[in-house]
Amino acid sequence: MKIEKLGPQIGARIHGIDLTQPLSDGRVTEINAAFLEHLVLLFPNQSLTPGQLMTFGRLFGELEPPHPLLPSHPDEPQVTLVLNDEANPPENDVWHTDVTWKPTPPLGTALHAQVLPSSGGDTFRISMNAVYEALTHAERTRFEALRAVHSIETFADSNQDSDDGGLVRAMMDKYPLLEHPMLRAHPETGKRCIFVNAGFTTHIADVDAEESQAIMARVAELVARPEFQLRVQWQPLTLGLWDHRCTQHLAAADYYPQFQKMHRVTVVGDEPRLLPH
Question: Which pTM value belongs to this model?
Answer without folding.
Answer: 0.93
